[in-house]
Automatic annotation (TrEMBL), chain D:
<dbReference type="InterPro" id="IPR000298">
    <property type="entry name" value="Cyt_c_oxidase-like_su3"/>
</dbReference>
<keyword id="KW-1133">Transmembrane helix</keyword>
<feature type="transmembrane region" description="Helical">
    <location>
        <begin position="62"/>
        <end position="82"/>
    </location>
</feature>
<keyword id="KW-0472">Membrane</keyword>
<feature type="transmembrane region" description="Helical">
    <location>
        <begin position="24"/>
        <end position="50"/>
    </location>
</feature>
<comment type="similarity">
    <text>Belongs to the cytochrome c oxidase subunit 3 family.</text>
</comment>
<protein>
    <recommendedName>
        <fullName>cytochrome-c oxidase</fullName>
        <ecNumber>7.1.1.9</ecNumber>
    </recommendedName>
</protein>
<dbReference type="InterPro" id="IPR024791">
    <property type="entry name" value="Cyt_c/ubiquinol_Oxase_su3"/>
</dbReference>
<feature type="transmembrane region" description="Helical">
    <location>
        <begin position="103"/>
        <end position="124"/>
    </location>
</feature>
<feature type="transmembrane region" description="Helical">
    <location>
        <begin position="136"/>
        <end position="161"/>
    </location>
</feature>
<feature type="domain" description="Heme-copper oxidase subunit III family profile">
    <location>
        <begin position="1"/>
        <end position="202"/>
    </location>
</feature>
<feature type="transmembrane region" description="Helical">
    <location>
        <begin position="181"/>
        <end position="200"/>
    </location>
</feature>
<keyword id="KW-0812">Transmembrane</keyword>
<dbReference type="Pfam" id="PF00510">
    <property type="entry name" value="COX3"/>
</dbReference>
<keyword id="KW-1278">Translocase</keyword>
Length: 268, 292, 635, 205
């Protein structure tokens, strides 16, 4: 009896406490929801709706096709896998996909946003400090999802302008006989049927633009750092470096490889 | 109450119907007259029954309070500037509809106002009504209508049909159609809440909860489609451009959909939980003491 | 009515039990194994099969952790790795978690309700075989290197005809059809059993909380599984007969897949979690020696969780470019789920506080559950916020979050429940020493493996990558995670050894070794084929804690399978109902169905041709057997 | 745990069958109806989801489905409720002769529906491979056709069963009553699908 009465009392107390507990939880969640709302607004309010700079990024299995929009078509800058942004300048990134769903994510700059075939998404960015960052596809997109990175450089406006000017220039012509041989190989073999190199007959859009390949930090969407050896390895055996990717094995012998790499290294 | 009735006169004096100005009160007799008559009937009926009642005055007071609140919310949504604002913003219009279907009619239905209104009628009319109700065909029709399943289907049909672009635009364009729209929302949701309350009282709590669940889904589906849609459905609102809330027409519609979906769903879920709670309550203490 | 044997004063004790045993026992030998419709046989094999898939799924996770232990590891190729993580997710969600929760209910619920078999027992047998064939299809495919590789979520268009040619995705989608048929069948059986087969007096408000959890779960399965069945059907149609549901260039939309998929897959988390809360409630009641406090609040919390879980699927899609206005609504709705969850947690803790806890192994799992689940719940509240989620989404933070929720919230209670009901299943008590050792290894290993993932996620490591670059600050944490998985494996092995060693001992468990209060403990351990010699009667929510002998009702037939149907709410005795005999036709129907489904991967005509054998098998299944005089006849 | 048992009552006098929600069959049928209702509801949602992104519905230059076959089927399927109610009532008063007659009528009455359904597929004016609009139209019609087929199959088996000795078992009358309930679900769900396939494309601009 006595124990039963004690239990009764305890139970009543616990029930009162339960009400208090529910109230506290509801209050806490309300605060968090409002906080979430406020921070979402603060993040988006920092950026004007129509920023001066617009970059269109089209995702492909497994690389990024990047176009800096310009009212003058000749001044539209096209590059791949490396994004340069001026510090302190708001930018609108337009996101599209050519094949499957990918997700654009530069953790140091903003949250992620999906690139969905048939849809166009936007992401507003405001880089606030200079530096080199890494972006990466965040939605599983097939075999080489792991190697779909994006090099990002946030730099002062002046150096961004310099970069932009350099990138707008057509590709450097081959400077040595070896590079010339490489140039001829690139134009005559399969390379030119997928890649574009401005100022040359190569103008296909199935693969990354190579006009200023050698100026980039890495090869194959962040798979390998840009060195002569890695370029060599990549062209000799793309499926060994990044299994499953869409670059075919060409079958250059070592002399031809040397020539092609010499040409590509000149594409600063 | 009286001052509330006088207020709109004053407001009307200032507000026109130009969209650039602040929305004004709606005093069309097609709206105000039925509201006033209902209140009058209830008042008379209440006074008559109060005089006769020996016991149960507490319940009467509670019902009268519920009725009064429901009537106020209904009147506020139909007559106050909210109504006119709803002709410029879909979101505000949705708030008006939700107030009617989720708050006003719920309060009115739980107030069990039928007998009061009946007693408000003159004796002869009351007897005539009684004969009418007991006529075989009407009783059968009423029997079918008072099933929670039928009421759920009717309310769902009213909700979906009126949100078809052709019909909604018509309601926006013409006051007569607009009244018909609101009337069908009021009637179907009143019927819905009434059958739910009755099913609960008669021990069919499971049926009542299930119908609430279906209704939540029906509203959520429509609201969800609106919330996820990126094109305005209704030409009437699309033509107006930015709403007074500073939203584009598609954003206005998304917000309206969200209001139908999430707060609407919460009201239906809450009602189902209340029913369930009342049903679980008895027997709660009947645990054995642990045999240790 | 003469000549019909019934239990009662004249027929009780050993003679009754012998005659009931003859009536209810499955046929002997292999034939009996193939034809049984006893819920305990089916439930046990369902549990064994699902636990086998837990082991297989865990082996896959060990493979992944070996690959991820070091950066740029070449142990597993990307193609194989993608298959492995797809198979891990698919196996754990579709072949382990949902089936094992249904399996435990198939075994326990009829006993807990005080009846002799589940409703629709032949459907139950059919459901097991269908599940088994679907699971085998997937795993045989994987072993033959045609395992799916587009993720367990199968986002279109990656899984569509253009980007996933071959049969891999077809196998996945058809496996969904199998498990959907099986899952829905069990959900309907359990709903009917809980609502109609309860012991007299067990009104809904005296029903054990586990039964409430299973009732709500079953209804959720009924409402949500059609969504995944529909979208996997659309996917297979896109792939095989050229429909355009998800093709953005022909008016279709890849996001349609995500909406339908998450409309199922978000409630699925609660389909896994709610039965686990039921386990916890039963274990807390038994090991604190008092009922869980605030019973109505607990029931409402379960119902509200079920309801809310259908409103928040969109929070898996914050990054897809949804209209921004909705964000705060989705955030609020998602956070609202925390309210019923916290009510339950509070009630359990308060019950422990007020009761006298016994720290046996099942109770340890419950404490581990509370700790882990609260951490998982808090990280869930974090990802409910859109600005945070846009950073955490698809990173290891989310991996950590849902493993805390699913392993902490469902697997720990499941292991506790298996330990708790083991004497009922087998008639033997598991060793407490080995049980506690396994518990500590699993609990510590789990936290070593998964806690660091919160940090790797915050450091920016995305999910579903087969490797990662060095020097990102992720190396050490990944190594730690891999070590943790090793510790879990050790714990799992101890758990299995405990089971194996115990099963070799003679039976020693009493009917109610833990002094629990619910009806399954009134049956012998293990229960005979007929469960209870007489129909038990319930006078409170804790019937076995009542003083005096167990009240029972008599008068069911002994020479024929018969059980009692009661009214849905008050559980008043209503109808004596015949329960079917064992038969081979559910198995043959499942084989016919499997032939149809698997054939349809290769040609749509298999659907047409396969209908004939299926029709014959169903006809033979449903056609009444025996002479009609066995039942009352209307003349 | 208490030892022994105490006899509290006897169940021998209980009936062995009951109609409606007293019957387990009813609960099974309701369960399957909810499952299939969800299939329909989600297909409707998919329909509207695809519709929402379109400028015109059906997408230009497609024409909406022709009305004749579908409307005839709608009228006919509503008329089948007459024999259906007749069977249900007869079953609930154990009138075997009427049930037998009714089931034969019902089995025959469904056949013209299949003929009309064939014409319906032909009058959609779109193939399932053309675009997502075509796919979702075919999906709706296909889903409903599977219900026609399964319920017709049930009815045929039940008809055969009722002409055997098993037709006299009380629980077969329950089965007959529940089969009639399921048919109501089949035609009720058709009314919504009819609106979606034939009228929504006409109502929308």
């Amino acid at each position: 009896r006595g124990r039963a009465a004690g239990t009764e009392r305890g139970e009543r107390l616990a029930r009162t406490a339960l009400l208090g507990w529910i109230a506290a939880v509801v209050l806490g969640l309300t605060v968090l929801t409002v906080g979430s709302y406020a921070s979402e607004r603060r993040v988006s309010a920092a950026i004007p709706a129509r920023p001066p700079l617009e970059v269109q990024i089209t995702a492909n299995q497994w690389w990024w096709d990047i176009t800096y929009k310009n009212a003058v078509p000749a001044n539209e800058l096209r590059t791949a896998n490396e994004l340069h942004l001026p510090v302190g300048v708001p930018v609108k990134v337009t996101l599209k996909s050519n094949d499957v769903i990918h997700s654009f994510w530069i953790p140091s700059l903003a949250g992620k946003q999906d690139l969905i075939p048939g849809r166009v998404n936007d992401l507003l960015l405001l880089p606030t400090r200079t530096g080199q960052f890494r972006g990466q596809c965040a939605e599983f997109c097939g075999t080489q999802h792991a190697h779909m990175a994006l090099d990002v450089t946030v730099e002062p406006v002046a150096s961004f302008r310099r970069w932009q000017q350099a990138q707008l220039a057509p590709a450097a012509p081959p400077s040595t006989p070896l590079a010339q041989a490489g140039h001829d190989l690139v134009m005559s073999q399969q390379c030119a049927s997928c890649h574009a190199i401005a100022g040359t007959p190569a103008s296909a859009r199935f693969g990354p633009d190579l006009t200023h390949l050698a100026s980039r930090r890495s090869i194959a969407a962040g798979t390998l750092p840009m060195t002569r050896g890695h370029l060599y390895a990549w062209i000799a055996d793309p499926q060994g470096v990044k299994p499953g990717n869409n670059m075919p094995y060409i079958g250059f012998d070592s002399a031809k490889l040397h020539a092609v790499v010499a040409y590509l290294q000149g594409l600063k | 109450m009286l001052c509330l009735l006088l207020l709109p006169e004053a407001a009307l004096a200032h507000a026109g119907h130009d969209h650039a100005e602040a929305p004004g009160w709606t005093l069309a007799p097609s709206v105000t007259l039925p509201l006033a008559i209902t209140l009058l009937l209830y008042g008379v009926g209440f006074a008559r029954l109060w005089a006769r009642a020996r016991r149960g005055r507490r319940a009467m007071r509670r019902d009268a309070l519920l009725f009064g609140l429901g009537w106020l919310v209904l009147t506020a949504s139909l007559v106050s500037p909210l109504h006119e604002a709803g002709e410029r913003s879909f979101t505000v219009h949705m708030i008006e509809h939700e107030l009617i279907m989720l708050v006003a009619t719920l309060l009115l239905a739980t107030a069990g106002a039928g007998s009061m209104l009946l007693w408000g009628l003159p004796a002869a009319a009351r007897r005539a009504f009684g004969r009418l109700v007991h006529a075989r065909s009407i009783a059968a029709g009423w029997g079918a209508l008072s099933s929670p399943w039928v009421a759920t289907a009717l309310q769902a049909a009213a909700l979906w049909l009126w949100h078809a672009p052709a019909l909604f635009d018509r309601a926006l364009a013409s006051e007569g159609w607009h009244v018909a729209q609101h009337l069908s929302f009021i009637v179907t949701s009143l019927l819905f809440w009434w059958t739910i309350a009755r099913a609960d009282a008669r021990g069919s709590a499971g049926v009542a909860a299930f119908c609430l669940l279906i209704t939540a889904c029906v509203g959520a589906a429509l609201g969800g489609l609106m919330a996820l849609s990126s094109s305005p459905w209704y030409a009437g609102y699309a033509a107006m451009g930015m709403t007074p809330l500073g939203l584009t027409p598609e954003e206005d519609q998304q917000l309206a959909g969200l209001i139908m979906w999430i707060p609407g769903g919460i009201v239906h879920m809450g009602a189902a939980l209340v029913i369930l709670y009342r049903w679980l309550k008895p027997g709660e203490e009947r645990h054995a003491v642990s045999a240790e | 009515m003469t000549g019909i044997a019934r239990d009662g004063e004249a027929l009780k004790g050993a003679e009754l039990e012998g005659r009931l045993d003859r009536t209810w026992r499955p046929a002997p030998g292999l034939w009996g194994w193939l034809t049984t419709v006893d819920h305990k046989d089916i439930g046990r094999r369902y549990i064994y099969t699902a636990m086998t898939f837990l082991i297989l799924g865990s082996i896959l996770s060990v493979a992944m952790r070996l690959q991820l232990a070091r950066p740029e590891s070449g142990l597993i190729s990307p193609a194989r790795y993608n298959q492995i993580f797809t198979m891990h997710g698919t196996t754990m969600m579709f072949l382990f978690a949902v089936p094992v929760m249904e399996a435990a209910a198939i075994y326990v619920i009829p006993l807990m309700m005080g009846t002799r078999n589940i409703a629709f027992p032949r459907l139950n047998a059919f459901s097991y075989w269908t599940y088994l064939f679907g699971a085998l299809l997937l795993w045989v495919g994987f072993v033959l290197n045609v395992g799916p590789d587009a993720g367990w979520f199968m986002y279109t268009p990656l899984s569509g005809p253009q980007f996933s040619p071959g049969k891999r995705t077809d196998i996945w989608a058809q496996m969904i059809t199998f498990t959907e048929v099986a899952g829905l069948a069990v959900a309907i059986e359990l709903t009917a059993t809980i609502l109609k087969f309860r012991a007299p007096g067990m009104s809904l408000n005296r029903m054990p909380l586990y039964a409430w959890a299973i009732l709500v779960t079953s209804i959720m399965i009924i409402l949500s599984l059609p969504a995944v069945a529909l979208c996997s059907g659309m996917l297979i149609a896109d792939r095989l007969i050229g429909t355009q549901f998800f093709n953005p260039f022909e008016h279709g939309d890849p996001l349609l897949w995500q909406h339908l998929f998450w409309f199922f897959a978000h409630p699925e988390v609660y389909i896994i979690f709610l039965p686990a809360t039921g386990f916890v409630s039963q274990i807390v009641e038994t090991f604190t020696g008092r009922p869980v406090i605030a019973y109505p609040a607990m029931v409402l919390a379960v119902v509200a969780t079920g309801f809310l879980s259908f409103g928040v699927w969109v929070h898996h899609m914050f990054a897809t470019g949804l209209p921004r206005l909705g964000y705060d609504f989705y955030t609020a709705a998602t956070m609202a789920v925390a309210i019923p969850a916290s009510i339950q947690i509070f009630c359990w803790i308060a019950t422990m506080w007020l009761g006298k806890p016994r720290y046996a192994t099942p109770f340890l799992y419950v404490i581990a559950f509370i700790v882990t689940f609260v951490i998982g719940g808090l990280s869930g509240v974090m990802v409910a916020s859109v600005p945070l989620d846009l950073q955490f989404h698809d990173t290891y933070f989310v991996v950590a979050h849902f493993h805390y929720v699913l392993v902490g919230g469902a697997v720990f209670p499941l292991l506790g429940a298996l330990t708790y009901w083991f004497p009922k299943f087998s008639g033997r008590m598991l060793s407490e020493g080995l049980g506690k050792l396994a518990f500590w290894l699993i609990f510590l290993g789990f936290n070593i493996a998964f806690f660091p993932m919160h940090i790797t996620g915050m450091l920016g490591m995305p999910r579903r990558v087969y490797t990662y670059p060095a020097n990102m600050g992720w190396d050490g944490l990944n190594m730690l995670s891999s070590i943790g998985v090793g510790v879990i494996v050790l714990g799992g092995l101890v758990f299995l050894a405990n089971v194996a060693l115990t099963l070799r001992r003679p039976r020693d468990a009493a009917p109610n070794p833990w002094n629990a209060a619910s009806l399954e403990w009134a049956a012998a351990s293990p229960p005979p084929p007929y469960n209870f010699p007489h129909v038990p009667v319930v006078r409170s929510a804790t019937p076995l804690w009542e003083q005096g002998p167990l009240p029972v009702m008599t008068g069911l037939r002994v020479d024929d399978r018969e059980l009692l149907i009661t009214t849905a709410i008050d559980a008043r005795p209503d109808i004596r109902y015949p329960s079917p005999e064992g038969t081979i036709w559910p198995l043959l129907s499942a084989i016919a169905l499997a032939a149809l489904f698997i054939g349809s991967i290769f040609t749509p005509w298999a659907v047409v041709i396969g209908l004939a054998p299926l029709g014959v098998a169903f006809l033979a299944w449903f056609w009444p057997k025996g002479s009609p005089t066995a039942e009352p006849v209307i003349e | 745990m208490a030892d022994g048992v105490r006899f509290e009552g006897d169940l021998a006098a209980l009936p062995t069958h009951g109609f409606g929600h007293r019957s387990i069959t009813w609960w099974g049928i309701i369960g399957f109806m909810v499952v299939e209702g969800m299939f329909f509801a989600l297909s409707f949602a998919a329909y509207f989801f695809i519709l929402d992104k379109e400028q015109t519905w059906p997408p230009a230059p497609l024409a909406p489905p022709d009305l004749l076959a579908g409307s005839l089927l709608t009228i006919l399927i509503l008329l089948t409720e007459i024999p259906n109610s007749w069977i249900k009532r007869a079953a609930e008063r154990y009138d075997l002769a009427t049930v037998r007659k009714g089931l034969v009528v019902m089995s025959a009455a469904v056949i013209p529906l299949f003929v009309l359904r064939g014409f319906e597929f032909a009058s959609l004016n779109v193939s399932w491979t053309d675009n997502a609009y075509g796919s979702v139209m075919w999906l709706l019609l296909f889903l409903h056709t599977t219900h026609l087929v399964t319920d017709w199959g049930d009815t045929l088996v039940l008809t055969a069963l009722m002409f055997t000795e098993h037709g006299k078992e009380a629980n077969r009358f329950v089965d007959t009553s529940e089969n009639a309930l399921y048919w109501r679900f089949v035609w009720l769900s058709w009314l919504l699908i009819y609106l979606l396939i034939y009228w929504v494309p006409r109502w929308l601009p």
